[in-house]
Amino acid sequence: MQHNFRAISLSHKSAPVEIREVISLDEGSIHALLIKLKEFFSLTDTLILSTCNRTEVYYSHELDLSTEIIKLIGLEKGLTNVVDYLEYFKVLNNDKEAIQHLFKVSMGLEAQVVGDMQISNQVKRAYQMSADLDLAGPFLHRLMHTVFFSSKRVVQETAFRDGAASVSYAAVELIEELTSNTYQPRVLLIGVGEIGEDVAKNMVHVPDAKVTITNRTFEKAQALASELGYEAIPFEECMQAMNQADVVVSSIMKSEPFITKELVKAMDIPSYKLFVDLSVPRSIETTIEDVPGVMLYNVDNIRSKATETLERRLASIPQVEKIIEEAIDEFFNWKKGMMVSPTINKLKNALEQIRQEEMGRFLKNIDEDQAAVIDKITKSMMQKILKVPVVQLRAACMRDDADQMINIISDLFDLEKVSEKKD
């Protein structure tokens, strides 16, 4: 039996950052949640995606498990009041709607900055984790490979991924604008995870900036700094560097704010200091803006300006949507075919069982050459007998009328009895 593919989604479209940071899942939490979903509900096609902009669970099941899954997220996060967050989740129980949503998310159509390139890698990592835990069956494998193929088409056939218009690039545009009157602005990047690394690479668009990188693992900061011609400092020197910087970009993962109001109040701020918080959960206290000269931007209020790149991406959306529509049509044709595959296999097995029994009865006393000829002839006959019902079954699938045809063929060839006999 094929179950409905479903999705639950909490994203920047339905929840502000203070809600998203409470619900966001790190890699360990995703791993633990996947195992729970597998053990509690025997799920086979499950994907969990958690980024700074969204936390989503995709799954196949005959029942709507959205409330149970949200409660499990709450359990994993240690939230006793997770039911209070139900209103922020969008529930998609329709096969096509859930699949279409996954395509749009994967292509960057649902991103804060349209066409955000980071999402593709995030989706691939989510899929890899599901596959590693045996939570990806034939359905999810086929679906994800269709998504990845469509993503390649978007890159090759449209301008949707041209240039750099990710959240991290939007942050760099902001830095460039706000430091335009500052000679060689000093920029400190704290954390070189995926977003931090992307910010560092995009800082080439602010060539006058003096960029310093720090990270808990110094070797990682050092390697990136060496590649880009920046300075790297040990994490222990972060506070001193923060005091000297004009711009501080934080993208580290911490359960509590790393940069506090008390810390900022102790800094020497002659004119201004810009803080950019790209972390979810947030790593900078919002109250630092009370300190004179301090400006704070987070992932919700950073917006890419109307650049030529973004305009080209917006103009390409109809092309992207057409590619998605074609991919979904192709996928659903495959899905329909999967519905009749068990019946086709049962029919093949039933006819092969008859052929083998008759071969066994009549070919006891003939030589190998004669047996080979008869084996070849009977196999050819069986293929010809199979051709019409197989074609009719697949045609019935395309008409969304397969159930009746499956029942007729099953009754005609007594396939259930044959299957029981084989078992």
TrEMBL record:
The record marks 101 as: Important for activity. GO terms for molecular function: glutamyl-tRNA reductase activity; NADP binding. The keyword Oxidoreductase applies. Possesses an unusual extended V-shaped dimeric structure with each monomer consisting of three distinct domains arranged along a curved 'spinal' alpha-helix. The N-terminal catalytic domain specifically recognizes the glutamate moiety of the substrate. The second domain is the NADPH-binding domain, and the third C-terminal domain is responsible for dimerization. InterPro entries: 4pyrrol_synth_GluRdtase, 4pyrrol_synth_GluRdtase_dimer, 4pyrrol_synth_GluRdtase_N, Shikm_DH/Glu-tRNA_Rdtase. Residues 319-415 form the Tetrapyrrole biosynthesis glutamyl-tRNA reductase dimerisation domain. It holds the Pfam family GlutR_N. It comes from Arthrospiribacter ruber. Catalyzes the NADPH-dependent reduction of glutamyl-tRNA(Glu) to glutamate 1-semialdehyde (GSA). One of its GO terms (biological process) is protoporphyrinogen IX biosynthetic process from glutamate. Homodimer. Substrate binds at residues 51-54, 116-118, 122. Belongs to the glutamyl-tRNA reductase family. NADP(+) binds at residues 191-196. It is an enzyme of class 1 (oxidoreductase). The active site is at residue 52. Its EC number is 1.2.1.70. It catalyses: (S)-4-amino-5-oxopentanoate + tRNA(Glu) + NADP(+) = L-glutamyl-tRNA(Glu) + NADPH + H(+). CDD domains: NAD_bind_Glutamyl_tRNA_reduct. Pathway: Porphyrin-containing compound metabolism; protoporphyrin-IX biosynthesis; 5-aminolevulinate from L-glutamyl-tRNA(Glu): step 1/2. Residues 174-303 form the Quinate/shikimate 5-dehydrogenase/glutamyl-tRNA reductase domain. NCBIfam families: hemA. This is Glutamyl-tRNA reductase. During catalysis, the active site Cys acts as a nucleophile attacking the alpha-carbonyl group of tRNA-bound glutamate with the formation of a thioester intermediate between enzyme and glutamate, and the concomitant release of tRNA(Glu). The thioester intermediate is finally reduced by direct hydride transfer from NADPH, to form the product GSA. The keyword NADP applies. It comes from the Bacteria. The gene is hemA. Keywords: NADP, Oxidoreductase, Porphyrin biosynthesis.
